[in-house]
Amino acid sequence: MKKCLFVISTSVAILSSATFAQTQKSLPIIDIEQQPQVAGFYQHQLGSIQITALLDGTNFMSPTLFQNISQDKVHEILKKYHADQAKGVQTSINAFLVNTGSALVLVDSGTADCFGAHLGSVLKNLKASGYKPEQVDTILLTHLHPDHVCGVSKNGVANFPNATIYVSKDEADYWLNPKQSKSIPKDKLENYFGTVKTIKAAIAPYQAKKQFKIFKLGDKIKGFEVINTSGHTPGHFSYKFKTTDQDIVFIGDIVHSHTVQFDRPETAIEYDIDPQQAVQTRLKQFSDYAKNGQTIAAPHLPFPGIGHIYSADGQSYQWIPIHFKD
Ligand SMILES: [Zn+2]
């Protein structure tokens, strides 16, 4: 009996491998590096508002950008999260379009052509999602780094001609006040001036039409509350919107990695202008968001970047993305 079974299973094995070889020949191999995996927009209903996450693209960071942590520990965490390290630490660049019913608000705008062809898809994905750029009336920028501001224009022409841009006073002062350069360390000056040039080019068409405005703590813009989350940049702000029964915070760059900086939230990143303050801000916001079950939307967490923060011990955190819904 045993012998008989063995004979049958062997013949099945031979048959299936022959079938497999035939199938392989007739099917084209898809180049997943070239073909987008999913549509670059994702729509999420939250109470009375509709949020459209817009993918700008996928980026890879060097693991050496993380600070106050050994490289061995970085790799250990990445391994724990099964993060492919072949090209570096994967991160998304996302922007968010919020339809409040009375306003169409874009939170951050992606990179346009400031960083290369693998990024810069926000405008294309906004159109694909069913909206027109002319319908956007407000742009809230969490800060003025080029991966958040470049997407507002291209070659001196506004991508969102009817929108007014809002930035915090501290952020505008830091990048746009000529006196500021005196306080920048000498070794950082070249980089600073390069970034200033990029920012000025992006916002120029809005400034020319007086569609560039500055806010301060306590102001409300189209129903959005502003929250000071400085550290990553001196005038970094998050935005909170309360709907009928729920609310959401667009957190901006208080975090850049859903692996290393959730596991070890005290880890700063090279891009932070004030690393210590950036860490303090993350610890405070993460703790509050985890306690309150706050829905958040983040530009550098895996697309669509909407979800919740969980902590079992109040020390380390886990990213809980919203569940995909068709
Ligand atoms: Zn950023």
Automatic annotation (TrEMBL):
One Pfam family hit: Lactamase_B
Record-level Gene Ontology MF annotations: hydrolase activity; metal ion binding
UniProt family annotation: Belongs to the metallo-beta-lactamase superfamily.
The protein's name in its UniProt record: Putative quorum-quenching lactonase YtnP
EC number, as in UniProt: 3.1.1.-
Keyword presence, Heme: no
Coiled-coil intervals: none
Metallo-beta-lactamase domain mapped to chain residues: 92-300
Phylogenetic classification of the source organism: Bacteria, Pseudomonadati, Pseudomonadota, Gammaproteobacteria, Moraxellales
Gene3D superfamilies: Ribonuclease Z/Hydroxyacylglutathione hydrolase-like
Cleaved signal peptide residues: 1-21
Keywords noted in UniProt: Hydrolase, Metal-binding, Signal, Zinc
